[in-house]
Amino acid sequence: MDCGRSPRARNPRELTATPSTFGKYPTLTMGVEEELMIVDPATLDLFPGVQRIRARAESYDLPGPVKTELHASIFELNTPPCATAHEAAASLTALRRGIAEVVAAEGLAFAAAGCHPFARALDQEIVDDERYQHFVGWAGVSAQRQGVQGLHVHLSMPDGETCWGVLEGMLQWLPVILALSANSPWFEGVQNGVHSNRAEILLDLPRTGAPPPCGSYAGWEAWANRLIALGIFEDATRLWWDVRPNPHLGTVEVRIADQQTDVRRSAALAALIQALAATIIEAGPSGDVDPSRRGDYHHNRWAASHYGPLATLIHPEGNRIATAAELGAELLAFVAPAATALGSSDLLAIINPDVCEADLQTVLSTPHEVAADLVARSLA
C-alpha cells in the first residue's frame, strides 16, 4: 500500500501535468506484487520482522526487491517487468522460494492470504518510516486497520488514453475477479460470513472502490491535478482504487484481488488480468461510459466480497443477473482468444470459477488451524 499524509495546498499555477512513463515498455508488459505476512512459527501470530528480513535478503540473489508495507509484520515482493505471464509465474515462484530461505534463516515463517485469521490489526507495529507515521497520524484508525494483503498487477500501457480505456473496460469485470480471488474469510479470530474481509476493510480509506467516471485520461489527470493543487493528496499513488492509472510506472494497476496462498493462483489471476486488458485493447474504444454503472459496480463489489463465487451480480450488460461463478466462466471464455495469443491458456485453466481460496479456509474449525494451513500452502 502506498501511504502518505495529506499535504499542504499548492499554488495551482505551479502544478505541472502528472509525469508519466507510458510507452517505456512494450504494451502489456507485466509486473506483479505480492503482499505476504511474517509469522512466528511457534504461535502463528504476526511478527514485526520486516526490517530483519529486508536486511537478510540483501545477501540473497532474489529476482526482485523486498519492500516494506504499513505494518512491520508485512512485506511486499515485486517481480521485474515480465514480457509474458509465464515469465511472471516463474518470477513469482522464484521469489517465494528465495524469501522462504530468507525468512527461515531468521527463525520465522511467512503466510500468504488476504488477511491473518486471528491477529488484530490495531495491535500491529507500524513501520518506523516517516511516510507511514504521517499516514497513520492523518488517517488514524482507518489506516491502522489496513492489516490486509492484496495481489496487484501492473500492465504497461502505450499512452494515457489507452490506460483509461482499459481501466473503464475492466471495471465491469473486477467484482468477478474479486469473487474468484476472495481469500480472507476469517477476521480477528472470527469466521464472519464474508469471503473477502480485505475488500471491506479497504473501504475505510478515502478514494477507494471505483474511480469517478472522468471520461478520459485527460479528464482524470485534470481532476487529480486539481485535488493535488488543493492539498487533498500528494500524488496519484494516494488513490487506493481497485484499479488506477499509475503514470509514474506507465501502467494500469489492477488492485482488486486478495492475496493468494497458492502462488500458482497468483500467476493465473495475473494472466487473466493481462488477457482481459488485451481483449479490451483489441476491441477498441467503447464510447461514452454511463455514470450510473458505477452504482452497479458498488453493488457487485459488495456482493462479491461477501459471497465469493456464489454472489449474485448484475451482468456487465446491465439487463440481467448471474452468479459470480457463471460470470467467471463467461469471463474466461471472453478472454480465451487473447490468452491463446499470449500463450497463457494453461495458466487460466488453473482457475475454477466455482471456487475460491476462501473456501479452503472456511472448512477449518479454528483460526490457528487456518494459520498453520496458510503457512504450509504458501510454501507448497
TrEMBL record:
InterPro entries for the chain: GCL_type2/YbdK_subfam, GCS2, Gln_synth/guanido_kin_cat_dom, YbdK
Keywords: ATP-binding, Ligase, Nucleotide-binding
GO-annotated molecular function: ATP binding; glutamate-cysteine ligase activity
Region feature (Disordered): 1-21
Keyword tRNA processing: no
SUPFAM superfamilies attached to this UniProt entry: Glutamine synthetase/guanido kinase
Annotated GO biological process: modified amino acid biosynthetic process
Keyword rRNA-binding applies: no
NCBIfam families tied to this protein: gshA_cyan_rel
HAMAP family registered for this protein in UniProt: Glu_cys_ligase_2 (MF_01609)
Name of the protein in its database record: Unannotated protein
Native source organism of the sequence: freshwater metagenome
